[in-house]
């Protein structure tokens, strides 16, 4: 992978979950259990039905929250607090990753479909506090989720991101389609490659990838 692929980039956008920490930490297993319980309590349905709705809304709308808001008028604030109250004991500081992020030229932000307070907790557990110029959660996109292009547009407008000078790092391949359409360099961070025209690069090791493009 030539460094020249990123020579024009001075704005770096990172997803959070399973991107800035390895999926082996399995934080989302905890979040999913909290989502299922929340759906059970709010909608008065069985665990099996709640799990089905959780996945159906994620597939259909981009996030479970988006489906709950559109189909059940759920208040997003309490939901975001509740489902992100999880243990971060499985996360460890990563000094190598921190060093490579620190060395990237230009502006660096985190943009997650989770909440910004949750992102701050995860970054602290990973030893990445203070490395990013801004942290954006789904609340900063008016609760519109990635992969909706309007969500990206809202966050990037708030931050002043210029897409043709930016790169996006993300574990969910769906969430790279809009950045690609906007003119960004796209990097899929996941154990297994996903072949798609909107994905420029794949890596299963974000730290090593960043080391190669400096």
TrEMBL record:
UniProt xrefs under Gene3D superfamilies: 1.10.150.450, HAD superfamily/HAD-like
Pfam families named among the record's database cross-references: Hydrolase
Keyword Zinc-finger belongs to the record: no
Enzyme Commission (EC) number: 3.1.3.-
UniProt-listed InterPro entries: HAD-like_sf, HAD-SF_hydro_IA, HAD_sf, Pyr-5-nucltdase
GO function terms (MF aspect): hydrolase activity
Taxonomic superkingdom: Bacteria
Keyword Glycoprotein belongs to the record: no
Keywords in alphabetical order: Hydrolase
Protein name listed in UniProt: Fructose-1-phosphate phosphatase YqaB
Organism whose genome encodes this protein: Thalassovita gelatinovora
Gene of this entry: yqaB
């Amino acid at each position: 992978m030539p460094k020249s692929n990123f020579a024009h980039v001075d704005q770096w956008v990172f997803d959070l979950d399973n991107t800035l920490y390895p999926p082996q930490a399995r934080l989302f297993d905890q979040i999913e259990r909290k989502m299922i319980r929340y759906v059970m309590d709010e909608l008065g349905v069985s665990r099996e039905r709640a799990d089905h709705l959780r996945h159906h809304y994620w597939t259909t709308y981009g996030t479970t929250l988006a489906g709950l808001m559109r189909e059940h008028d759920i208040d997003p604030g309490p939901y975001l607090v509740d489902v992100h109250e999880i243990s971060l004991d499985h996360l460890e500081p990563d000094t190598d990753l921190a060093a490579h992020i620190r060395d990237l030229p230009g502006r660096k932000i985190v943009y997650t479909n989770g909440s910004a307070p949750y992102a701050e907790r995860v970054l602290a557990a990973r030893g990445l506090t203070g490395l990013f110029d801004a942290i954006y959660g789904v609340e900063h996109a008016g609760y519109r989720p990635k992969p909706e292009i309007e969500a990206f547009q809202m966050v990037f407008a708030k931050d002043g991101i210029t897409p043709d000078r930016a790169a996006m790092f993300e574990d969910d391949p769906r969430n790279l389609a809009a950045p690609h359409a906007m003119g960004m360099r796209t990097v899929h961070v996941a154990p297994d490659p996903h072949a798609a025209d909107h994905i420029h690069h794949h890596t299963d090791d974000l730290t090593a990838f960043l080391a190669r493009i400096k």
